Protein backbone atom coordinates (compact mmCIF):
# COMPACT_ATOMS: atom_id res chain seq x y z
CA UNK A 1 0.00 0.00 0.00
CA UNK A 2 2.77 2.43 0.89
CA UNK A 3 4.72 1.65 -2.29
CA UNK A 4 1.58 2.11 -4.34
CA UNK A 5 0.83 5.48 -2.74
CA UNK A 6 4.41 6.64 -3.42
CA UNK A 7 4.23 5.37 -6.99
CA UNK A 8 1.02 7.29 -7.61
CA UNK A 9 2.44 10.45 -6.03
CA UNK A 10 5.43 10.30 -8.34
CA UNK A 11 3.85 9.02 -11.54
CA UNK A 12 0.08 9.30 -11.19
CA UNK A 13 -1.87 6.56 -12.88
CA UNK A 14 0.54 6.34 -15.82
CA UNK A 15 2.54 3.23 -16.63
CA UNK A 16 5.17 3.59 -19.30
CA UNK A 17 7.00 1.34 -21.72
CA UNK A 18 9.68 1.94 -24.34
CA UNK A 19 9.70 0.70 -27.91
CA UNK A 20 13.25 -0.63 -28.17
CA UNK A 21 15.47 -3.18 -29.90
CA UNK A 22 18.01 -5.16 -27.90
CA UNK A 23 21.31 -6.06 -29.51
CA UNK A 24 23.84 -8.32 -27.83
CA UNK A 25 26.75 -7.73 -30.18
CA UNK A 26 28.88 -10.58 -28.79
CA UNK A 27 28.88 -12.93 -25.81
CA UNK A 28 32.65 -13.46 -25.88
CA UNK A 29 33.95 -12.36 -22.49
CA UNK A 30 37.24 -12.49 -20.62
CA UNK A 31 35.39 -12.93 -17.31
CA UNK A 32 33.34 -15.88 -16.08
CA UNK A 33 30.81 -14.52 -13.62
CA UNK A 34 29.27 -17.48 -11.83
CA UNK A 35 25.67 -16.43 -12.47
CA UNK A 36 26.21 -15.73 -16.19
CA UNK A 37 25.10 -18.32 -18.75
CA UNK A 38 25.46 -15.79 -21.55
CA UNK A 39 29.25 -15.41 -21.69
CA UNK A 40 31.49 -17.70 -23.74
CA UNK A 41 35.13 -18.08 -24.66
CA UNK A 42 36.02 -17.84 -28.34
CA UNK A 43 36.48 -21.59 -28.59
CA UNK A 44 33.02 -22.39 -27.18
CA UNK A 45 30.32 -23.66 -29.50
CA UNK A 46 27.82 -21.07 -28.29
CA UNK A 47 30.19 -18.10 -28.75
CA UNK A 48 28.91 -15.48 -31.16
CA UNK A 49 30.10 -12.15 -32.50
CA UNK A 50 28.03 -10.12 -34.95
CA UNK A 51 29.59 -8.11 -37.74
CA UNK A 52 28.72 -4.43 -37.82
CA UNK A 53 26.76 -4.99 -41.04
CA UNK A 54 24.62 -7.62 -39.30
CA UNK A 55 23.88 -5.28 -36.40
CA UNK A 56 23.01 -2.41 -38.72
CA UNK A 57 20.77 -4.68 -40.73
CA UNK A 58 18.96 -5.88 -37.55
CA UNK A 59 18.38 -2.32 -36.38
CA UNK A 60 17.36 -1.16 -39.86
CA UNK A 61 14.79 -3.95 -39.86
CA UNK A 62 13.30 -2.63 -36.59
CA UNK A 63 13.08 1.04 -37.69
CA UNK A 64 9.79 0.62 -39.57
CA UNK A 65 8.31 -0.54 -36.23
CA UNK A 66 9.18 2.98 -34.96
CA UNK A 67 11.53 1.94 -32.20
CA UNK A 68 13.05 4.89 -30.35
CA UNK A 69 16.02 3.16 -28.74
CA UNK A 70 18.62 0.52 -29.45
CA UNK A 71 19.91 -1.11 -26.27
CA UNK A 72 23.27 -2.78 -26.77
CA UNK A 73 25.50 -4.73 -24.38
CA UNK A 74 27.96 -7.56 -24.80
CA UNK A 75 30.73 -9.44 -23.03
CA UNK A 76 34.18 -8.02 -22.36
CA UNK A 77 35.50 -8.90 -25.77
CA UNK A 78 39.30 -9.36 -25.78
CA UNK A 79 40.10 -8.38 -29.36
CA UNK A 80 37.48 -6.09 -30.93
CA UNK A 81 39.24 -2.84 -31.76
CA UNK A 82 38.48 0.73 -30.72
CA UNK A 83 37.53 1.58 -34.32
CA UNK A 84 35.04 -1.30 -34.38
CA UNK A 85 33.08 0.22 -31.47
CA UNK A 86 33.28 3.76 -32.83
CA UNK A 87 32.33 2.67 -36.33
CA UNK A 88 29.35 0.75 -34.93
CA UNK A 89 28.11 3.79 -33.01
CA UNK A 90 28.66 6.15 -35.95
CA UNK A 91 26.84 3.87 -38.36
CA UNK A 92 23.93 3.43 -35.96
CA UNK A 93 23.68 7.18 -35.56
CA UNK A 94 23.83 7.68 -39.33
CA UNK A 95 21.04 5.12 -39.76
CA UNK A 96 18.67 7.31 -37.76
CA UNK A 97 19.98 10.35 -35.86
CA UNK A 98 16.79 10.33 -33.71
CA UNK A 99 17.43 6.79 -32.48
CA UNK A 100 18.75 6.82 -28.91
CA UNK A 101 21.75 4.53 -28.46
CA UNK A 102 21.83 3.12 -24.95
CA UNK A 103 24.87 0.91 -24.65
CA UNK A 104 27.56 -0.62 -22.47
CA UNK A 105 27.54 -1.44 -18.78
CA UNK A 106 30.02 0.19 -16.40
CA UNK A 107 32.30 -2.85 -16.60
CA UNK A 108 32.26 -2.68 -20.41
CA UNK A 109 33.19 0.99 -20.22
CA UNK A 110 36.08 0.16 -17.88
CA UNK A 111 37.16 -2.69 -20.16
CA UNK A 112 37.09 -0.43 -23.21
CA UNK A 113 39.03 2.28 -21.37
CA UNK A 114 41.72 0.05 -19.92
CA UNK A 115 42.26 -2.67 -22.51
CA UNK A 116 40.89 -1.44 -25.82
CA UNK A 117 40.98 2.37 -26.00
CA UNK A 118 43.84 2.69 -23.48
CA UNK A 119 42.46 6.02 -22.33
CA UNK A 120 41.15 7.39 -19.02
CA UNK A 121 37.52 6.46 -18.38
CA UNK A 122 36.25 10.02 -18.83
CA UNK A 123 37.97 10.35 -22.21
CA UNK A 124 36.58 6.98 -23.23
CA UNK A 125 33.05 8.09 -22.34
CA UNK A 126 33.58 11.35 -24.24
CA UNK A 127 34.87 9.48 -27.29
CA UNK A 128 31.91 7.09 -27.20
CA UNK A 129 29.51 10.00 -26.84
CA UNK A 130 31.04 11.84 -29.78
CA UNK A 131 30.51 8.71 -31.87
CA UNK A 132 26.83 8.51 -30.91
CA UNK A 133 26.40 7.00 -27.44
CA UNK A 134 23.27 8.44 -25.81
CA UNK A 135 23.17 6.70 -22.41
CA UNK A 136 25.07 4.00 -20.59
CA UNK A 137 23.14 1.02 -19.24
CA UNK A 138 22.71 0.11 -15.57
CA UNK A 139 23.86 -3.50 -15.78
CA UNK A 140 26.70 -5.09 -13.85
CA UNK A 141 25.83 -3.63 -10.46
CA UNK A 142 24.76 -7.08 -9.18
CA UNK A 143 25.07 -6.76 -5.35
CA UNK A 144 27.68 -4.24 -4.23
CA UNK A 145 28.89 -6.15 -1.16
CA UNK A 146 32.54 -7.20 -1.83
CA UNK A 147 32.12 -10.65 -0.23
CA UNK A 148 29.12 -11.43 -2.44
CA UNK A 149 30.90 -10.07 -5.53
CA UNK A 150 33.89 -12.25 -4.80
CA UNK A 151 31.66 -15.32 -4.87
CA UNK A 152 29.34 -14.53 -7.78
CA UNK A 153 31.42 -12.34 -10.11
CA UNK A 154 35.07 -12.48 -9.16
CA UNK A 155 37.18 -10.13 -11.24
CA UNK A 156 34.35 -7.74 -11.97
CA UNK A 157 34.66 -4.09 -10.97
CA UNK A 158 34.10 -3.12 -7.33
CA UNK A 159 31.08 -1.17 -6.16
CA UNK A 160 33.13 2.02 -6.08
CA UNK A 161 34.38 1.44 -9.61
CA UNK A 162 30.81 0.84 -10.85
CA UNK A 163 29.59 3.96 -9.06
CA UNK A 164 32.55 6.02 -10.36
CA UNK A 165 31.71 5.27 -14.01
CA UNK A 166 28.12 6.38 -13.45
CA UNK A 167 29.22 9.43 -11.43
CA UNK A 168 31.54 10.49 -14.25
CA UNK A 169 28.82 9.99 -16.86
CA UNK A 170 26.36 12.01 -14.77
CA UNK A 171 28.91 14.80 -14.27
CA UNK A 172 29.27 14.93 -18.05
CA UNK A 173 25.51 15.59 -18.24
CA UNK A 174 24.67 12.00 -19.16
CA UNK A 175 21.89 9.90 -17.67
CA UNK A 176 21.76 6.21 -16.85
CA UNK A 177 19.66 3.59 -15.15
CA UNK A 178 20.75 1.44 -12.22
CA UNK A 179 20.12 -2.19 -11.36
CA UNK A 180 20.38 -4.88 -8.71
CA UNK A 181 20.65 -8.64 -9.25
CA UNK A 182 19.07 -10.17 -6.16
CA UNK A 183 17.71 -13.48 -4.94
CA UNK A 184 20.95 -15.48 -4.85
CA UNK A 185 23.40 -15.59 -1.92
CA UNK A 186 22.95 -12.03 -0.65
CA UNK A 187 21.34 -11.23 2.69
CA UNK A 188 18.52 -8.69 3.05
CA UNK A 189 21.02 -6.34 4.75
CA UNK A 190 23.35 -6.56 1.74
CA UNK A 191 20.43 -5.76 -0.52
CA UNK A 192 19.58 -2.69 1.52
CA UNK A 193 23.21 -1.60 1.53
CA UNK A 194 23.21 -1.87 -2.28
CA UNK A 195 20.17 0.41 -2.43
CA UNK A 196 21.81 2.82 0.02
CA UNK A 197 24.83 3.25 -2.24
CA UNK A 198 22.63 3.93 -5.25
CA UNK A 199 20.55 6.41 -3.29
CA UNK A 200 23.65 8.24 -2.08
CA UNK A 201 25.02 8.62 -5.61
CA UNK A 202 21.61 9.84 -6.75
CA UNK A 203 21.63 12.47 -3.97
CA UNK A 204 24.96 13.62 -5.37
CA UNK A 205 24.25 13.64 -9.13
CA UNK A 206 20.51 13.14 -9.80
CA UNK A 207 21.68 11.22 -12.86
CA UNK A 208 19.71 7.99 -12.48
CA UNK A 209 16.45 8.01 -14.39
CA UNK A 210 15.13 4.67 -13.20
CA UNK A 211 15.88 1.58 -11.15
CA UNK A 212 15.60 -1.91 -12.67
CA UNK A 213 15.95 -4.85 -10.24
CA UNK A 214 16.35 -8.38 -11.65
CA UNK A 215 15.71 -11.59 -9.77
CA UNK A 216 18.49 -14.16 -10.23
CA UNK A 217 17.63 -16.71 -12.93
CA UNK A 218 18.80 -20.07 -11.47
CA UNK A 219 18.13 -22.54 -14.30
CA UNK A 220 21.71 -22.79 -15.56
CA UNK A 221 23.53 -21.99 -12.32
CA UNK A 222 26.30 -24.02 -10.80
CA UNK A 223 28.98 -23.84 -8.08
CA UNK A 224 28.11 -21.50 -5.23
CA UNK A 225 24.84 -20.68 -7.02
CA UNK A 226 23.71 -24.27 -7.56
CA UNK A 227 20.45 -25.29 -5.89
CA UNK A 228 19.27 -21.73 -5.37
CA UNK A 229 15.55 -21.47 -5.92
CA UNK A 230 14.07 -18.72 -8.05
CA UNK A 231 12.71 -15.82 -5.96
CA UNK A 232 8.99 -16.44 -5.49
CA UNK A 233 6.40 -14.12 -7.01
CA UNK A 234 5.66 -12.76 -3.54
CA UNK A 235 9.36 -12.13 -2.88
CA UNK A 236 9.71 -10.25 -6.17
CA UNK A 237 6.69 -8.08 -5.43
CA UNK A 238 7.88 -7.40 -1.90
CA UNK A 239 11.32 -6.47 -3.20
CA UNK A 240 9.84 -4.05 -5.74
CA UNK A 241 7.68 -2.44 -3.07
CA UNK A 242 10.66 -1.95 -0.74
CA UNK A 243 12.71 -0.58 -3.65
CA UNK A 244 9.99 2.01 -4.34
CA UNK A 245 9.87 3.07 -0.70
CA UNK A 246 13.62 3.16 -0.12
CA UNK A 247 14.77 4.78 -3.38
CA UNK A 248 12.75 7.89 -2.80
CA UNK A 249 15.03 10.02 -4.98
CA UNK A 250 14.80 7.85 -8.13
CA UNK A 251 11.64 8.73 -10.03
CA UNK A 252 10.95 5.52 -11.87
CA UNK A 253 10.83 1.84 -10.96
CA UNK A 254 10.90 -0.63 -13.84
CA UNK A 255 9.57 -4.18 -13.79
CA UNK A 256 11.77 -6.15 -16.19
CA UNK A 257 9.14 -8.47 -17.64
CA UNK A 258 11.80 -10.77 -19.14
CA UNK A 259 12.69 -11.71 -15.58
CA UNK A 260 9.28 -11.46 -13.88
CA UNK A 261 7.11 -12.64 -16.76
CA UNK A 262 4.48 -10.29 -18.11
CA UNK A 263 1.64 -11.43 -15.78
CA UNK A 264 3.67 -10.70 -12.63
CA UNK A 265 5.03 -7.48 -14.14
CA UNK A 266 1.42 -6.48 -14.67
CA UNK A 267 0.58 -7.15 -11.01
CA UNK A 268 3.66 -5.17 -9.95
CA UNK A 269 2.04 -2.02 -11.33
CA UNK A 270 0.20 -1.95 -7.99
CA UNK A 271 3.35 -2.64 -5.93
CA UNK A 272 5.36 0.48 -6.72
CA UNK A 273 6.23 -0.11 -10.39
CA UNK A 274 5.42 2.54 -12.98
CA UNK A 275 7.28 1.17 -16.02
CA UNK A 276 7.20 -2.15 -17.89
CA UNK A 277 10.51 -1.65 -19.70
CA UNK A 278 10.12 -2.33 -23.41
CA UNK A 279 9.30 -4.35 -26.42
CA UNK A 280 12.97 -5.50 -26.44
CA UNK A 281 12.74 -7.48 -29.71
CA UNK A 282 15.19 -10.26 -28.88
CA UNK A 283 16.61 -10.66 -25.40
CA UNK A 284 19.51 -13.11 -25.09
CA UNK A 285 21.05 -12.81 -21.62
CA UNK A 286 18.13 -14.10 -19.49
CA UNK A 287 17.05 -16.39 -22.29
CA UNK A 288 20.44 -18.15 -22.29
CA UNK A 289 20.25 -18.37 -18.49
CA UNK A 290 17.08 -20.41 -18.87
CA UNK A 291 14.28 -17.82 -18.73
CA UNK A 292 11.16 -19.17 -20.41
CA UNK A 293 9.53 -15.81 -21.01
CA UNK A 294 9.26 -14.63 -24.65
CA UNK A 295 12.15 -12.68 -26.21
CA UNK A 296 9.94 -9.77 -27.17
CA UNK A 297 6.57 -8.12 -26.59
CA UNK A 298 4.46 -6.08 -28.95
CA UNK A 299 3.34 -2.56 -28.10
CA UNK A 300 -0.24 -3.88 -28.13
CA UNK A 301 0.59 -6.59 -25.56
CA UNK A 302 2.31 -4.14 -23.21
CA UNK A 303 -0.51 -1.59 -23.52
CA UNK A 304 -3.11 -4.30 -22.96
CA UNK A 305 -1.31 -5.51 -19.82
CA UNK A 306 -1.13 -1.95 -18.48
CA UNK A 307 -4.80 -1.18 -19.22
CA UNK A 308 -5.92 -4.45 -17.64
CA UNK A 309 -4.09 -3.41 -14.45
CA UNK A 310 -6.13 -0.20 -14.39
CA UNK A 311 -3.25 2.05 -15.43
CA UNK A 312 -2.89 4.42 -18.38
CA UNK A 313 -0.27 3.19 -20.88
CA UNK A 314 2.16 5.77 -22.28
CA UNK A 315 5.09 5.19 -24.57
CA UNK A 316 8.25 6.81 -23.18
CA UNK A 317 11.70 7.70 -24.43
CA UNK A 318 15.05 6.61 -22.96
CA UNK A 319 14.77 9.27 -20.22
CA UNK A 320 11.27 8.10 -19.22
CA UNK A 321 9.73 11.18 -20.86
CA UNK A 322 6.25 10.64 -22.23
CA UNK A 323 5.98 10.46 -26.00
CA UNK A 324 2.93 11.25 -28.05
CA UNK A 325 1.76 8.88 -30.76
CA UNK A 326 4.21 10.39 -33.26
CA UNK A 327 7.20 9.41 -31.14
CA UNK A 328 7.79 13.02 -30.04
CA UNK A 329 8.09 14.21 -26.44
CA UNK A 330 4.60 14.97 -25.17
CA UNK A 331 4.91 18.44 -23.66
CA UNK A 332 1.35 18.40 -22.37
CA UNK A 333 2.74 16.62 -19.31
CA UNK A 334 5.76 18.69 -18.29
CA UNK A 335 5.79 17.03 -14.87
CA UNK A 336 7.39 14.05 -16.53
CA UNK A 337 10.32 15.97 -17.99
CA UNK A 338 12.61 15.30 -15.09
CA UNK A 339 15.64 14.74 -17.27
CA UNK A 340 15.20 17.47 -19.87
S1 LIG B 1 28.08 -10.97 -16.54
FE1 LIG B 1 29.10 -9.73 -18.12
S2 LIG B 1 31.24 -9.58 -17.39
FE2 LIG B 1 30.30 -11.33 -16.29
S3 LIG B 1 30.78 -13.13 -17.54
FE3 LIG B 1 28.74 -12.42 -18.18
S4 LIG B 1 29.17 -11.09 -19.93
FE4 LIG B 1 31.13 -11.34 -18.84
What would you say this structure looks like, in words?
With 340 residues, the chain is of the alpha/beta class. The protein has a single domain (2-323), classed as Alpha-Beta Barrel (TIM Barrel), CATH 3.20.20. It is 40% helix and 13% strand. The chain has 13 helices and nine strands. Helix 1 crosses helix 9 (233-246) and helix 7 (159-171) runs parallel beside helix 8 (188-205). The two termini are 31 Å apart. 50% of the residues are buried. The model is unreliable at 333-340 (pLDDT under 50). Iron/sulfur cluster binds next to loops.
Task: Give the tags.
340 residues; alpha/beta; TIM Barrel; three-stranded parallel beta sheet; 13 helices; disordered C terminus; binds iron/sulfur cluster
Largest sheet: number of strands, sense, barrel closure:
3 strands, parallel
> Helical percent range?
25-40%
Strands of the largest sheet, in order across it?
A: 8-1-9
Classified in CATH, the superfamily is: Aldolase class I
The mean pLDDT is: 92
Output the CATH class name. Alpha Beta
Overall geometry comes to globular
Class from secondary-structure proportions: alpha/beta
Q: Which range does the strand content fall in?
A: 5-15%
Radius of gyration: 19 Å
By CATH, the topology is TIM Barrel
The total of helices stands at 13
Uncertain residue segments = 333-340
Bound molecules: iron/sulfur cluster
CATH architecture: Alpha-Beta Barrel
Number of strands: 9
Q: SSE string, helix = H, strand = E?
A: HEEHEHEHHHHEHEHEHHEHHE
Report the end-to-end length measured between terminal Cα atoms: 31 Å
